[in-house]
């Protein structure tokens, strides 16, 4: 990840910055890229046939005019020729004149920031990261003079947009992110927040992108121990024998067909001051999902190494809570198992006793996520005294079908919690859309042989798969204020887009961090 440092804010008076500082670095400073902002032209409704209507001129922001003069470039003409209007994420590259190449940084990049909204600044940051891969040192004035929230968004976009998935083998992965970036006028708190958030997303992406022969339940538990050690978290890992002894029937049933036994990881951030609030985050951690006996088609299996994305996000969010020194206690529960086929695999028709004694009739072994979450939620509600309980899971294709890859689904039994999740999604960029807990649909989970069925029977031809899954999970939270995040759609991306990188997206890490920082008071 690029090392980011703050440098002095640019002077706002007339004239170029002093040589050797600001946007005129001396050669020995080894700055090879300068970056300044250009905003979109204001909508002044010019005549439709006018030149300005056909080729809107980007508006320079702080430092842009001086650097253009230094490089001797007519930016307006260059922008018109290239069709660049200052829209967020556009870039315009200027190289120094040949007779001054030794004295000037090798690239001057004008970065489009649109209307300078938080979302557009994230996009600008991501575009700059991709345009500067392989660079040694960037000096950027893109957010000079803007507020902390705007600066944080730009920096997050940059750090996330330059991400590359871990690669195995001899083939090179391509140029890495720039080694260093100096940002003029950067607020220290914005820098800290952005770097902590970006590291959390990188961790979630790295864990989720790794192949399933590496990222087994035991391996994930080992990574959790490493995170706990560096962040000062309390950690407990329950292995298969202890899970069986304590009655985690859902988790052990799902993992029963695999050579890689299940694990339950509990990591806790405890603030130094006494606190009344305790937030418990539960993550689905299916390290590979074959579907079990209810086998998936081959193509549907290819992305199932990512079925542990929820657990990865929870681990990352708890570490971020510790780094941010939040005032409330945060516990993460990672329910880790591999859903495989074997002689001892659980079957459709089995009745499984989950943690706390609720029995579940299995209708489809490919609906394994709700079984491991049932155990983890019941355990948290019964033994951890949470004030807020949140689970996050790549749970249903129905949520992805309904909302696509840009939004996660959110359900909650508390209106205030639902609102807080929506607000956190809008603020962080991990957007969620509320779906209802329709209790009129409870009959779809009726069972003759157990307390509850875990899927609607095929003969019922019942839709609303994401809602039915949420209704099932609600039965295990014992009335605790609870939110369920179904991230099956946005867990992965087919291509780079803005701050989202191809592969695992780490969706939910930014959302949970924002939620934890602005936790609503749910106590009476």
Please give the alpha-carbon distance between the first and last residues: 43 Å
Determine Rg (CA atoms, Å): 25 Å
Coarse morphology: elongated
| Quaternary structure | single chain
The total strand number stands at 20
Poorly predicted residue ranges: 14-20
Note the beta-strand portion.
15-25%
Write out the strand line-up for the largest beta sheet, numbering strands in chain order.
8-9-11-10-14-18-15-16
Share of residues in helices: 25-40%
Could you characterize the architecture of this molecule?
With 524 residues, this protein is α/β, with parallel strands linked by helices. It has 16 helices and 20 strands. The longest helix has 22 residues, at 188-209.
Question: Would you kindly provide a brief summary of this structure?
Answer:
The protein is α/β, with parallel strands linked by helices and 524 residues long.
List keywords for this structure.
hydrolase, 20 strands, EC 3.4.11.1, 7-stranded mixed beta sheet, Peptidase_M17_C
Spell out the blueprint of helices and strands.
Blueprint: E1 3-7, E2 33-39, H1 51-54, E3 59-60, H2 64-71, H3 75-82, E4 91-94, E5 107-114, H4 118-131, E6 137-140, H5 148-161, E7 180-184, H6 188-209, H7 217-231, E8 234-238, H8 240-246, H9 249-254, E9 263-269, E10 278-289, H10 298-301, H11 309-324, E11 329-339, E12 351-353, E13 359-361, H12 369-383, E14 388-393, H13 397-403, E15 408-412, H14 415-428, E16 432-434, E17 452-453, H15 465-474, E18 482-486, E19 492-493, E20 503-504, H16 509-517
Parallel strand pairs: 1-7, 2-5, 2-6, 6-7, 10-11, 10-14, 13-17, 14-18, 15-16
Antiparallel strand pairs: 2-3, 4-5, 8-9, 9-11, 12-13, 15-18, 19-20
Helix pairs in contact: 4-5, 5-6, 6-11, 7-11, 11-16, 14-16
